[in-house]
Amino acid sequence: MNLLHVDSSILGPGSVSRHLSAAIVAQQQALHPGITLVRRDLATHPVDHLTGEHLAAAQGVVPEAAALQADIAAGQAALEEFLAADIVVVGAPMYNFGIPSQLKAWIDRLAVAGRTFRYGAQGPEGLAGGKTVIIASSRGGFYGAESQTAFLDHQESYLRGVFGFFGITDIRFIRAEGVALGEPQRQQAIDSAEAEILKLAA
């Protein structure tokens, strides 16, 4: 069994999403002794954003620049890691109502026709099903379905949509909200999220 641990926060040790994703991974390792762990930190080792040269290479044009060749290889490695994983744990903070750009760049390398999805007579079909995706979500404010600002959530809604598009149906969120609203609320959010992590074993 393989576990892929992906983090995207730029805050380092002060990141709530990193704290929660590490706790999720530790719990999954305890639940599945011997599981193989692959770590990808998109803040310290990002993949580049897509360009026209990337798309040309995908159509068969051989890239001449060594840097582009290396980046295409890195994107391919990211895709293979994802496809090989049985469990994917993603640390995903909300930045400006969406996800970090480095996380989006990684997802763009996963969205490859014929690998994670395809279009058929009945429309799009996901090809990467059978995985469990657990997302450690942190938010400075409150954006849950019951909040007045729920319409600004382009973070969890996007992640649920794109992984669902890849054919994944087991998508779980561990959420810490209001972490920018003072230390008491931050700690309460973390405590609540850690309690939800314990329930993942049920």
What this model shows, in words?
This protein is α/β, with parallel strands linked by helices and 202 residues long. Helices cover 39% and strands 20% of the residues. It is built from 6 helices and 7 strands; from the N terminus they run βαβααβαβββαβα. It has helices at residues 16-31, 52-58, 66-84, 101-110, 156-165, 183-199; strands at residues 2-7, 36-41, 87-93, 117-120, 123-126, 132-138, 170-176. Strands 2-1-3-6-7 form a 5-stranded parallel β-sheet, with helices on both faces. It is globular. The mean pLDDT is 94.
Give a quick precis of the structure.
By secondary structure, the chain is of the alpha/beta class.
Topology of this structure?
Layout: E1 2-7, H1 16-31, E2 36-41, H2 52-58, H3 66-84, E3 87-93, H4 101-110, E4 117-120, E5 123-126, E6 132-138, H5 156-165, E7 170-176, H6 183-199
Parallel strand pairs: 1-2, 1-3, 3-6, 6-7
Antiparallel strand pairs: 4-5
Helix pairs in contact: 1-6
Estimate the global geometry from the Cα principal axes. Answer: globular
Amino- and carboxy-terminal Cα gap: 19 Å
The description of the largest β-sheet is: 5 strands, parallel
| Helix vs. strand class | alpha/beta
Strand order of the largest sheet: 2-1-3-6-7
Helix content: 25-40%
Low-confidence stretches: none
SSE series = EHEHHEHEEEHEH
Number of helical regions: 6
Determine Rg (CA atoms, Å): 17 Å
| Overall strand count | 7
Mean model confidence by pLDDT:
94
Proportion of residues in extended strands? 15-25%
